[in-house]
Amino acid sequence: MNMIVDIDPSSFPAWMLFLTSFFLYTLISFLRNYYDRRTNQQCYLVDYSCFKPTSDRKLPTDLCGKIILNNTKLELSDYKFLLKIIVNSGIGEDTYGPRNIIAGEEEAPRLHHGHQEVDEFFQATLDDLFAKTSVLPEEIDVLVVNISMFAPSPSISARIINRYKLREDVKVYNLSGMGCSASLIALDLVKYVFRSHKNIKALVVSSESISLSWYSGNDKSMMLANCLFRSGGCSMLLTNDPVLKTRAKLVLKCLVRVHLGSDDDAYNCCLQMEDHEGLQGFHLGKSLPRAASKAFVQNMKILAPKILPLKEIFRFGLRSLMKLKNKSSPKQSTTSVVDFKSAAEHFCLHPGGAAVINGIGKNMGLNEKDVEPSWMTLHRFGNTSASSLWYVLGYMEAKKRLKKKDRVLMIGFGSGFKCNTCVWEVVRDLEDADVWEENIHNYPPQRLENPFVEKYGWVNEDDAEEQVPIRRAQMIDHPVKS
Ligand SMILES: CC(C)(COP(=O)(O)OP(=O)(O)OC[C@H]1O[C@@H](n2cnc3c(N)ncnc32)[C@H](O)[C@@H]1OP(=O)(O)O)[C@@H](O)C(=O)NCCC(=O)NCCSC(=O)CC(=O)O
User: Fold this and answer.
1) Transmembrane segments in this chain: where (predicted)?
2) Does 146 have pLDDT greater than 90?
């Protein structure tokens, strides 16, 4: 995936206009920050709780192999494809799946499977969040739930209100279909509510349900989703109450959303759909990395001037000028790379897949340590959709990397196609290990490979065609649930 942060200098009418806009922008930002501080409109993240399902929901190699063999629509060529994808996916042995898939019931999902998956997540994370913040459910003023692919009625937000007996005047929003970057959309919504209400508390409950969206067919772009998406979720407590400021972990500095839905390619690259047999699933097109790249560049055009220090803006402007001057020379580089490390110390990249992390990391000029939290999240928890970014943040915290005044840049991608970003400032030194607690010392592991090749390398052997029925028969003797 080629993601070049190439902000074409000809898109600025004139160099002077660019500088003037920058100074105006700085002045307006300063005045707005001052106004925000005076009017309690800062957005603080008090705490968050990521979900670690119980170990009986793990999806190790053997179980994944059984689930794959359980699908009688798949042929040898499909196995070969899956083997290649899974081996290179960056996903490890400890990710979690929904119970109905583990029980071998993926072809007949029921409403209660979706409820069970979501209930387990929100009960665990909200119980934990209320306990560790000592905030009571009746103190919650705003609730935003984002779960893309499971939108029952009454909504999941109503289910949360019912379980925790939230107040009658709670402002409630239930976002569905918003994809993997939806938790930043939820955050944006909270930020807007904070503008009109002082000293309030908001909950964002962010997850994805895959129990009803497992794909049982043989369309490769839809099989890919089964390989990448895993169960997870995160609940966050936010406030604009300055009294809670000292207890908060992070304060939001800015948030930028970009939507390329008007571009047909971008819109169509990431879709919930039915295949030629009418089987439902999630299509991840080969053009997705290209759409992500486009959305990322658009987002950076807005975000970069908001977060880059003056020195870096000058440096970038100068290099852009040089680029304009040297345009005629084919030997000159055509790219002006922005130094994002001058704007943030930590980078939460959406662990959407190996190509996503590689692509953004490389083109932002990030090093191995910068992208380690995203790789480790992909390895340990998989792509948990909208909640992924919070596992990445959790990794940084568990590694004790987040120090007071550090800045964290979050970059999320999602169907639509969207790229949403935000920058947080760390309020105090952070070191909660949360879901990473039991094995943070083992990360990064010495070897990241998964044992798929070792166990399923036979699909590439000469006699593979004959082996398929034998392996399937063995699977019938030892079905998925055993
Ligand atoms: C899947 C991969 C790990 C595979 O990596 P590899 O190193 O094996 O390299 P590769 O790209 O050459 O792919 C190997 C083989 O798979 C095929 N292949 C790759 N991508 C495919 C796709 N989307 N549909 C169908 N086939 C695909 C290639 O053509 C190739 O086939 P052949 O061998 O025949 O040539 C990587 O490509 C990847 O990370 N892709 C991006 C995944 C993605 O879309 N993530 C975003 C999730 S959406 C999200 O997070 C947001 C949201 O949902 O809202």
Assistant:
1) 12-31, 172-194
2) yes
283 is known as an active-site residue? no
Does residue 335 sit in helix, strand or coil? Answer: coil
Ligand 1 pocket by Cβ (under 6 Å)? 84-85, 88-89, 179-180, 220-221, 224, 228, 270, 284-286, 288-289, 352-356, 383, 413-415
Closest among 472, 404, 400, 468 to 440, alpha carbons compared: 400
DSSP-assigned letter for residue 279? -
Q: What angle do CA 127, 209, 236 make, to 5 degrees?
A: 35
- For residue 347, give the nearest of 382, 375, 309 by alpha carbon: 375
- The ipTM estimated for the assembled molecules is 0.94
Catalytic site residue from 350, 358, 419, 420:
350
Neighbour count for residue 170 (Cβ, 10 Å): 18
3-state SS of 153-197? CCCHHHHHHHHHCCCCCCEEEEECCCHHHHHHHHHHHHHHHHHHC
pTM across the whole model: 0.88
Dihedral class, residue 134 (left if φ above 0, else alpha if ψ from -120 to 50, else beta): left
What is the atom index within ligand 1 of the atom nearest the CA of 385? Answer: 50
CA separation for the pair 478, 474 (Å, rounded): 6
- Catalytic, 346? Answer yes
Is residue 350 annotated as a catalytic residue, yes or no? Answer: yes
| Phi, psi dihedral angles at 338 (to 5 degrees) | -80, 140
Burial 85-95 (b: 16+ CB within 10 A, else e): bbbebbbbbbb
Handedness of CA 36, 37, 40, 42 (dihedral sign): positive
The residue whose CA is least distant from atom 30 of ligand 1 is 81
Which one of 379, 419, 420, 450 is the catalytic residue?
379
Annotated catalytic, 478?
A: no
Render pLDDT for 369-420 as a digit per residue (tens, 0 to 9).
999 999 999 999 999 999 999 999 999 999 999 999 999 999 999 999 999 9
The closest-lying atom of ligand 1 relative to the alpha carbon of residue 418 is: 54
Give tens-digit pLDDT for 201-250: 999 999 999 999 899 999 999 999 999 999 999 999 999 999 999 999 99
How confident is the prediction for the chain on average, in pLDDT?
88
Q: Could you tell me which CATH number the domain at 44-319+337-448 has?
A: 3.40.47.10
Across 59-68, 234-243, 350-359, least confident range: 59-68
Distance, CA of 45 to CA of 43 (rounded, Å): 7
Q: Strand 250-259 to strand 142-147: parallel, antiparallel, or no bridges (unpaired)?
A: unpaired
Cα 21 to middle of ligand 1, angstroms: 40
